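Query structure, 445 tokens:
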């Protein structure tokens, strides 16, 4: 939920605004001066700031310039008891979104907030685009020498020279998005947008708006026209991950785009023409979903023009050492730990794992091991408990320890590394936050 920071030394007015805005579903943060407001901005990261012009410790117009100089994504609406043109002009020059008079313009506050939020969303989308453009994956980025991965790379190289729709199949964590970006960057659309969307993370209505965009007034809160990712990706590539999760009702709309290169925004009646290359991916059996009427047969055949199956890590275990070494170098440089390698037993344990999470799970395991390592090379002690406990008693000269003692010591080590940050500790331990709290209570940590 979006946050709104209200800065005003008049408590009654501040509380009134807070109550009105909170009814719209926003999270409210309050401050009675600029000093505390700066702390709230650092801590709470609000999207919208309502700020009085005259405050005990400064001027709101100057405050706008200070906030904007820090490249804050937030939009600032200034409130004044006595509006005047010179102040209004200066406020806008400093980067304020708008400048309104208290009392007289109270009915404008909510529409203004929604308009400002549209601008914030646009800036976030631009930042995401810039970040994605900056991530340049190519076929040389894909590590592996197993025949199965080399075959997938060869197929991807061939199809990258065309505009053919590609369907990437494979388990979660096998690198489908990296393949999609490599295909894009090796083709004639390189340099144009590459946008990725996970179809399984949105409700039907939000997903429809995210893909196709909407017209102003299409639904509550749709103050302005919004471009969908299809339009944002024009002349480039749109990667639809987890395509099997797209609601059945939206599948016909996506099929129309693939067949006609045009779409209709939510709330619109006029088609919009686009030129987009589509790459889709899934870990589901779409043919089975078609048989069970969960996925449209015509859409399946339209997506299934050129299929590439990515092997699981379990199918290419000979690549584990090279992948592990790559991640070791990445995270050693990132953390500043001078770790030169992995001992033999560490690698043996890696090769014995099932890796149900595939490359993504291996990457997370190496990151955690690098963080926990106290020496110059990774050892079994740096691996998660479940990866090494099955071998504890079989190792020569190993110290006998009961399972709970090993688990307690490992959790303590991770908590010390994260300086008590339990959310980060749970991520590194690969367990839920609730489970971590239960373990902390159980072991009296």
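Result returned for the query:
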């Amino acid at each position: 939920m979006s946050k709104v920071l209200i800065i005003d030394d008049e408590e009654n007015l501040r509380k009134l605004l807070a109550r009105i805005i909170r009814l719209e579903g926003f999270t409210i943060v309050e401050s009675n001066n600029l000093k505390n407001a700066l702390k709230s901005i650092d801590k709470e990261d609000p999207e919208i700031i309502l700020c009085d012009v005259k405050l005990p410790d400064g001027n709101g117009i100057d405050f706008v310039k200070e906030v904007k100089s820090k490249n804050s994504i937030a939009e600032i609406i200034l409130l004044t008891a006595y509006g005047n043109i010179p102040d209004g002009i200066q406020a806008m020059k400093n980067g304020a979104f708008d400048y309104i008079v208290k009392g007289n313009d109270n009915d404008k506050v909510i529409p203004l907030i929604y308009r400002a939020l549209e601008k914030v969303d646009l800036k976030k989308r631009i930042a995401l685009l810039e970040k994605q453009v900056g991530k340049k994956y190519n076929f040389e980025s894909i590590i592996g020498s197993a025949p199965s991965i080399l075959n997938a790379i060869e197929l991807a190289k061939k199809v990258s020279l065309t505009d053919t729709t590609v369907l990437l199949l494979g388990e979660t964590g096998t690198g489908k998005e990296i393949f999609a970006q490599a295909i894009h960057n090796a083709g004639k659309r390189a340099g144009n947008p590459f946008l990725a969307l996970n179809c399984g993370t949105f409700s039907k209505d939000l997903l429809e708006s995210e893909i196709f965009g909407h017209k102003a007034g299409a639904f509550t809160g749709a103050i302005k026209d919004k471009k969908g990712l299809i339009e944002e990706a024009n002349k480039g590539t749109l990667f639809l991950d987890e395509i099997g999760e797209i609601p059945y009702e939206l599948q016909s709309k996506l099929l129309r785009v693939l067949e006609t290169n045009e779409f209709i925004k939510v709330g619109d009646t006029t088609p919009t023409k686009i030129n987009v290359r589509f790459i889709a991916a899934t870990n589901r059996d779409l043919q089975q979903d078609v048989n069970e009427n969960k996925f449209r047969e015509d859409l399946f055949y339209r997506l299934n023009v050129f299929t590439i199956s990515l092997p699981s890590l379990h199918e290419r275990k000979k690549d584990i050492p090279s992948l592990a070494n790559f991640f070791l170098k990445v995270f050693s440089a990132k953390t500043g730990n001078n770790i030169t390698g992995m001992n033999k037993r560490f690698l043996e344990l890696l090769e014995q794992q099932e890796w149900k999470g595939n490359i993504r799970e291996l990457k997370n395991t190496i990151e955690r091991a690098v963080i926990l390592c106290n020496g110059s090379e990774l050892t079994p002690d740096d691996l998660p408990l479940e990866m090494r406990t099955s071998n504890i008693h079989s190792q020569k000269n190993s110290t006998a320890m009961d399972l709970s003692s090993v688990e307690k010591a490992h959790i303590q080590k991770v908590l010390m590394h994260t300086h008590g940050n339990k959310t980060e500790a749970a991520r590194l331990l690969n367990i839920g936050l609730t489970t971590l709290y239960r373990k902390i209570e159980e072991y009296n940590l």
